[in-house]
Amino acid sequence: MLHKHEKIWLTLSSVMIIGFMLFTGYQTFALGMGPPSHTETIDPQKVDEIEPFDEPGVYETGDNKYEVVMTLEAFMFTPSDIEIPAGSEVTFIMTSKDVTHGFQIAGTNVNAMVMPGYIQTITQTFNEPGEYLVLCNEYCGAGHQMMSTTITVN
Ligand code: CUA
């Protein structure tokens, strides 16, 4: 009898372990929650020479669609003071030239970490006109508190 129970428990725990492994695998590959293994990488020393970061700026890519190619460094966002029309869908393509910075847009759900060596992409639609404050929310040095810019939606 005892033997039978042990077997049941062994089988159950094996099933659970396999289940967790499958679940983790699913999260990693299907939901992209895993380590940044398939994230695009970049040499942080050469950001200025590598496309598209050799020309940071705001680019219109379609109807109400924009791409903002942005570099982050202590203690600034390039380009700064972005202006876009209301209703725009904006994809931010970002990387850091030095340390890890944050990219948070007040009044939205946008809150991302921008690490040297990696390209961070995030898309946000701006329907409400106004001035959106962009903050660095990762401590990055003496000027961290001053690292901010604005996105103006007209
Ligand atoms: Cu950049 Cu804090």
TrEMBL record:
Catalysed transformations (reactions): 4 Fe(II)-[cytochrome c] + O2 + 8 H(+)(in) = 4 Fe(III)-[cytochrome c] + 2 H2O + 4 H(+)(out)
Keyword Ribonucleoprotein: no
The keyword Membrane is assigned to this record: yes
Gene3D superfamilies, sorted: Cupredoxins - blue copper proteins
Domain Cytochrome oxidase subunit II copper A binding, first and last residues per copy: 54-154
InterPro entries registered for this protein in UniProt: Ba3_CcO_II_C (IPR034214), CcO_II-like_C (IPR002429), Copper_CuA (IPR001505), Cupredoxin (IPR008972), NosZ/Cyto_c_oxidase_sub2 (IPR051403)
Chief location of this protein within or outside the cell: other
Keywords: Copper, Membrane, Metal-binding, Transmembrane, Transmembrane helix
CDD domains per the UniProt record, alphabetical: ba3_CcO_II_C
Transmembrane segments: 7-26
PROSITE patterns named among the record's database cross-references: COX2, COX2_CUA
Localization annotation: Cell envelope
Described function: Subunits I and II form the functional core of the enzyme complex. Electrons originating in cytochrome c are transferred via heme a and Cu(A) to the binuclear center formed by heme a3 and Cu(B).
Record protein name field: Cytochrome aa3 subunit 2
